[in-house]
Known about the structure:
Blueprint: E1 4-8, H1 13-26, E2 34-38, H2 41-50, E3 56-59, H3 64-74, E4 80-84, E5 88-95, E6 98-100, H4 106-120, E7 125-127, E8 139-144, E9 151-155, H5 159-162, H6 175-187, E10 190-193, E11 196-200, H7 207-214, H8 219-233, E12 238-243, E13 247-252, E14 255-261
Parallel strand pairs: 1-2, 1-4, 2-3, 7-10
Antiparallel strand pairs: 4-9, 5-6, 5-11, 7-9, 8-10, 8-14, 12-13
Amino acid sequence: MHYEIAIPSYERPHIVDKATLSTLVRHGADLDRVTVWTATDEQREIYQSTLEHDVAIKTAQPGVMAARQHYHRHYPEGTRILNIDDDIQDLQQKDGDQLRVPDMTVDEIVELAFGLCEKTGARIWGIHPVQNGYFLRNEITVGLRYICGGFYGSFGGDREMLGPRVTDPLHSSGEDFELSLASFVAHGSVIRLEYLTLITKNFAKGGIDARSASLGFDRLELHRDGMVALAAAYPELSKVYTKAGDVPNLRLKTITHGKIPLEAI
Length: 265
């Protein structure tokens, strides 16, 4: 199956190299598929002189969502795109209440997930957002679930990615929640592989925090504003709640059209 791997990155050349690119190699991905999308030409030059892995490096735009919109216009319409954050330390699979190395390579995961999208009419797929085997399930769900932005599949040119948005593409706060909701409304389902999750490099220098600070914004307030705006735009499908540490978040309504047991794959 032909697909592209796109990694938006902001001021993190060492992190994307040691984390995400190393993770992809470890799980069998072909780096010829990979493009790291930087925010500016100046950053692109830094990445070119820093990365040890041999991958394409191109300039997009500042802001994770703005960068994603840029490369979704760059690739031909309908291109299968695996979108990955730049701080992914590992992929893991449920093993009872614990986690272990996945049975599938990245290629096999992508082929399975995009195949299900094409069978069901869904246009995005993802994996479970929680890094805890207890909460994962040995199944794939078809319906409405939150598709976290760290590791997910989409198609080039999709209107839900490129069209008018409630959240601000330059600030990139809540953009994955919005894509989950917009794609569900437009196509009736999203796909989530409930048995897979990712391990991220928490609080790494650079990324969205650095981008927000450079613009003089508080990321928590931006996130809160984004969650409130999305709940207002999709009142029947989402609501704001507060996580530990007074962090606002969005809870999506659970809608299940189908479940595929892992043993049936």
